[in-house]
Amino acid sequence: MVCKMKNVVLVLLFVLPLALADLRVGFYNSTCPQAESIVRQVIQKRFGADRSITAALLRMHFHDCFVRGCEASILIDSTAKKPSEKTAGPNFSVRGYDIIDEAKKSLEAACPSTVSCADIITLATRDSVFLAGGPSYNVPTGRRDGLVSNPDEVDLPAPSLSVSEALQAFTAKGFTLTEMVTLLGGHSVGVAHCGLFEDRLSNFQGTGAPDPTMDSSLVAKLKGICGNSTSNDPTAFLDQSTSFIMDNQFYKQIMQKKGVLQIDQELAVDKSSAGIVSRFASDVNSFKTSFASAMVKMGNVQVLTGNAGEIRRNCRAFNQPK
């Protein structure tokens, strides 16, 4: 898989904008040879204690790359005078910032002001995917950290969109329909708050009845989770069987009307995407190969390289002039 993914990386770098020529596998080989192993050790330790970090990092990576590009603007903390992306509604439940902090602290001790926070997110996500049973793949590094974090710019595809509506958001970032279906396969290890799907359980689109595309046993199960919890907005697994494993069970379930989010279920119903779902459901290796390729491509969205941006010393704050 690793050898195959090297070819994928080379192809992607060829077809994407020339600015990405500054990204390359092994970017830190001379400036911080242990960079990737330091990140990997942090992720391995955390994953051993909490397997949910894979879903957390996948979500963080996606939410970062789909706003200003993969330049770590999501990591910036708000100040009294200036709010950051963290204050935008879609990012309220993003977590895992402390994992990035831990990796950054170790990297700063080994190689001060060398490894970007944007690269840490990408590497940490890659490592957590592998630990969860997903593919092993190389990612090019050399990203720089952004200098802007504006909550007003956070406009992410909602979970209630149709396939065609969601595809507009993905094609705007350069992704195909197959790549969108692939990336949504990250829901194999995710959870969703009840507030994002509760309308499907009893009053779908104002009908006063459950969504007819959802399996009745799943409706009953989710009603129990959402209605019998002391939490204000409890969560449910998006994959009902292998909730912490990056496999193709998610696709098998949405083919059985067991998609929790509307967009997930739409993937199996819409004629444009149903065939892709069926292929991934029947061939786990096809899904994993496609997922590795799509993740490499996502990590290349609107990156800053060369002298653009900066290398933050603290991932939560822009560097102050020396």
UniProtKB/TrEMBL annotation:
It catalyses: 2 a phenolic donor + H2O2 = 2 a phenolic radical donor + 2 H2O. Its EC number is 1.11.1.7. It holds the Pfam family peroxidase. Ca(2+) 1 binds at residues 64, 67, 69, 73, 85. GO terms for cellular component: extracellular region; plant-type cell wall. Ca(2+) 2 binds at residues 239, 242, 247. The record marks 59 as: Transition state stabilizer. Keywords: Calcium, Disulfide bond, Heme, Hydrogen peroxide, Iron, Metal-binding, Oxidoreductase, Peroxidase, Secreted, Signal. Binds 1 heme b (iron(II)-protoporphyrin IX) group per subunit. Residues 1-21 form the signal peptide. It is found in: Secreted. SUPFAM superfamilies: Heme-dependent peroxidases (SSF48113). Substrate binds at residue 157. The keyword Heme applies. Disulfide bonds join 32-111, 65-70, 117-315, 194-226. The keyword Hydrolase does not apply. Heme b binds at residue 187. The active site is at 63 (proton acceptor). GO terms for biological process: hydrogen peroxide catabolic process; response to oxidative stress; response to stress. PANTHER family: PEROXIDASE, PTHR31517. Belongs to the peroxidase family. Ascorbate peroxidase subfamily. Belongs to the peroxidase family. Classical plant (class III) peroxidase subfamily. Removal of H(2)O(2), oxidation of toxic reductants, biosynthesis and degradation of lignin, suberization, auxin catabolism, response to environmental stresses such as wounding, pathogen attack and oxidative stress. These functions might be dependent on each isozyme/isoform in each plant tissue. This is Peroxidase.
